[in-house]
């Protein structure tokens, strides 16, 4: 009887290890999450009933449980050296030229530089026996218990060999978000970035905490590859995958000169925002191990490799002022004004502080040294305050009580403060800026500063004034920075905006909660402004993606006489009031179905792809669920692709999507 359970347990472990190998190393899962969970739970039941049968390499060891008093020091068999960093094209060319002085026609492996921390894994007879941090490169810390909780670290290799594997311990973007959600729930300080989160998580004395953090491991190096018949770095990466490790094989590449290296770096930087994990550069290594041996080492770094670092995405600066701005709805936003700094290639001097609660949570104070980064590589945000560098006489943040423009007493709703004065000049200018913006009426040349100038001069006070500006052409041409050509082009752009399709005007009106995508749904549904303005709450709440809150906001907007008068005035001015979108073609492939786009598209822009779907009666969604009909995948898809695989949702390549369109 016991032998039967032992055989069953061994069979389950082999099947679970095979499933993990297919999922992590091959990125080709052959079973569902539910099937994996069923096998895992059955194994758990056997081990609980017969603990004497439990193997050291059992997948159930990943849940953690053991706690340490401290981490023991370990000495690496081969020092874990780091590469020198380079930052620009000139340094890439210098590296290539230096290598070519000693090596004829070299090839280079190019790999994304994972933004985590280096780790070393020791296997004996194919079984994981030790995990360690890099430490100072010579001596690290024993983190074996915590490493075993990482699902992408094989507890047993596909071959019974003795080997050391090195790679990066990191936290995916999704796991980072989940970790910070948990931090907020527990009123704890949030992690500043995924790298800090990974470093803090792998060094927990309680392995149960590490297990909850969903860490990952990306293998990239074997210290003694010649022992396994390997002759190049790219062969090393293939062997790592064969052994069961997760590698970046889909993103790795080979190059032969600096131009090919620069092209790879540029292409990867474009894909970077959509990757499911953080990277901070590219690692360049001479591919041939024979060439590596010729190049050798300096006292501290290998001569055969180097690390290109992307421009800094998080930098330090000094907070000079907290400035409050008023939005078109009256929302008051505190903004950090700081000494200009270059962040990820852009010079920035301002970042939003969102609201009072955010300022208090971050404890921001004028004069503080703060770190700035681009959220999602686009919008500057304040990451944290360097408390240890704070001046003794700093003054805690205090929310203003009155509107900074019209001085009306502010009101607070949820976490936000608002100016309730509908005639506040700031609300008016923000409304005008929104009306002319690219996704609204798209009045080319009518930027924020011009609108503010025209407002202050009295030419623009309400949105209908855009269409009366032609009356002041002569006066406008006399203004500094303007001439006949620029004013003529501006007036032409204003005139052209009259022909926009209905969805742009709906969005331009600034109805609370009605964004550009919602405006398109409403325009498609109602076809004319008259129909839309007469929509009832019962109709609106039953439209997919509209619901009660948006519906009530629309009804409230059109219940006001001033808004009805505005629509009539815009109609009299000749603005188009009908939906001009493509007529929906009845397509069985698309009509009534929901699609999600992920990855970098090459054959279409994202907007073009969404328009194609919608013109055929389909819906483009931003998230994957059981209701998703298909996921359309471009280059380097992220977590949406993974979730689609988990849910068994059909996945189309971009070419398949194009072929289906061509066949309609």
Which helices and strands, and how do they pair?
Layout: H1 2-25, H2 33-49, E1 73-75, E2 85-86, H3 89-102, E3 108-114, E4 117-124, E5 127-133, E6 139-141, H4 144-147, E7 163-171, H5 173-185, H6 194-202, H7 207-212, E8 215-221, H8 233-243, E9 253-255, H9 258-271, E10 279-286, H10 289-295, E11 305-309, E12 314-326, E13 331-343, E14 346-352, H11 356-362, E15 369-375, E16 379-385, E17 411-413, E18 416-418, H12 425-436, H13 448-457, H14 473-477, H15 484-496, H16 502-508, H17 516-526, H18 529-533, H19 537-541, H20 547-558, H21 561-572, E19 594-598, H22 606-615, E20 619-621, E21 630-633, H23 639-647, E22 651-653, H24 654-662
Helix pairs in contact: 1-2, 3-9, 16-17
- What Rg do the Cα atoms give? 30 Å
Structural class per helix/strand content? alpha+beta
Residue-averaged pLDDT, rounded?
Answer: 87
Number of helices: 24
Main pleated sheet: 7 strands, antiparallel
From the N-terminal CA to the C-terminal CA, the straight-line distance is 62 Å
Outline, from the CA principal axes?
globular
Helix content: 25-40%
> Low-confidence segments, ≥5 residues, pLDDT <50?
none
How many strands in all? Answer: 22
Strand content: 15-25%
Labels describing this entry:
24 helices, 22 strands, 664 residues, 7-stranded antiparallel sheet, 5-stranded mixed sheet
Summary, kept brief:
37% of the residues lie in helices and 20% in strands. It starts with a helix and ends with a helix.
Outline the structure in words.
With 664 residues, the chain is of the alpha+beta class. Helix content is 37%, strand content 20%. The longest helix is centred in the N-terminal third of the chain and has 24 residues, at 2-25. The protein is globular, with a radius of gyration of 30 Å. The N and C termini lie far apart (62 Å).
């Amino acid at each position: 009887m016991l032998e039967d359970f032992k055989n069953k347990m061994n069979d389950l472990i082999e099947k679970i290890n095979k499933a993990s190998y297919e999922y992590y190393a091959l990125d080709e899962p052959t079973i569902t999450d539910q099937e994996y969970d069923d096998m895992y739970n059955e194994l758990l039941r056997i081990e609980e009933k017969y603990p004497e049968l439990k193997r050291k390499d059992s997948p159930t060891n990943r849940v953690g449980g053991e706690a340490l008093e401290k981490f023991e020091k370990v000495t690496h068999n081969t020092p874990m050296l780091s590469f020198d960093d380079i930052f620009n094209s000139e340094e890439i060319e210098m590296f290539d030229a230096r290598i070519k002085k000693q090596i004829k026609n070299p090839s280079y492996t190019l790999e994304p530089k994972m933004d985590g921390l280096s780790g070393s894994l020791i296997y004996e007879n194919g079984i994981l026996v030790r995990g360690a941090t890099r430490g100072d490169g010579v001596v690290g810390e024993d983190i074996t218990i915590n490493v075993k909780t990482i699902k992408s670290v094989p507890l047993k290799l596909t071959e019974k060999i003795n080997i050391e594997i090195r790679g990066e311990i990191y936290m995916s973007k999704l796991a980072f978000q989940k970790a910070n959600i948990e931090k907020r729930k527990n009123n704890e300080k949030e992690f500043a970035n995924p790298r800090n989160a990974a470093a803090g998580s792998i060094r927990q004395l309680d392995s149960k905490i590490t297990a909850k953090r969903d860490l990952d491991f990306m293998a990239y190096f074997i210290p003694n590859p010649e022992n396994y018949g390997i002759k190049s770095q790219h062969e090393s990466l293939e062997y790592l995958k064969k052994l069961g490790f997760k590698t970046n094989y889909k993103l790795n590449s080979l190059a032969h000169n600096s131009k090919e290296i620069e092209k790879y770096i540029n292409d990867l930087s474009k894909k970077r925002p959509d990757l499911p994990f953080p990277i901070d550069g590219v690692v360049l290594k001479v591919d041939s191990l024979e060439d590596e041996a010729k190049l050798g080492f300096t006292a501290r770094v290998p001569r055969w490799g180097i690390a290109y670092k992307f421009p800094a995405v998080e930098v330090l600066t000094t907070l000079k002022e907290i400035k409050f701005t008023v939005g078109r709805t009256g929302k008051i936003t505190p903004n950090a004004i700081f000494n200009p700094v270059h962040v990820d290639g852009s010079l920035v001097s301002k970042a939003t502080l969102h609201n009072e609660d955010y300022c208090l949570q971050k404890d921001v104070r004028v004069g503080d040294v703060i770190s700035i980064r681009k959220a999602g590589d686009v919008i500057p945000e304040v990451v944290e305050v360097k408390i240890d560098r704070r001046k003794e006489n700093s003054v805690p943040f205090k929310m203003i009580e009155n509107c900074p423009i019209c001085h009306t007493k502010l009101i607070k709703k949820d976490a936000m403060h608002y100016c309730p004065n509908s005639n506040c000049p700031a609300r008016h200018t923000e409304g005008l800026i929104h009306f002319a913006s690219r996704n609204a009426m798209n009045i080319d040349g009518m930027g924020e500063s011009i609108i503010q100038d025209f407002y202050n001069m009295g030419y623009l006070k309400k949105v209908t004034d855009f269409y009366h500006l032609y009356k002041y052409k002569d006066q406008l041409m006399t203004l500094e920075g303007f001439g006949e050509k620029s004013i003529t082009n501006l007036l032409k752009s204003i005139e052209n905006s009259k022909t926009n399709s209905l969805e742009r005007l709906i969005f331009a009106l600034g109805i609370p909660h009605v964004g550009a995508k919602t405006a398109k749904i409403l325009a498609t549904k109602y076809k004319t402004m008259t129909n839309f303005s007469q929509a009832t709450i019962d109709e609106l709440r039953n439209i997919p993606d509209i619901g009660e809150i948006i519906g009530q906001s629309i009804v409230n907007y059109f219940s006001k006489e001033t808004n009805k008068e505005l629509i009539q005035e815009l109609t009299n001015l000749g603005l188009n009031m009908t939906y001009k979108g493509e007529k929906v073609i009845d397509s069985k492939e698309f009509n009534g179905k929901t699609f999600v786009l992920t990855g970098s598209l090459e054959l279409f822009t994202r907007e073009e792809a969404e328009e194609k779907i919608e013109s055929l009666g389909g819906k483009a969604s931003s998230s994957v669920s059981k209701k998703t009909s298909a996921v359309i995948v471009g280059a380097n898809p992220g977590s949406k692709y993974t979730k689609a695989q988990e849910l068994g949702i059909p996945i189309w390549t971009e070419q398949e999507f194009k072929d289906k369109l061509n066949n309609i």
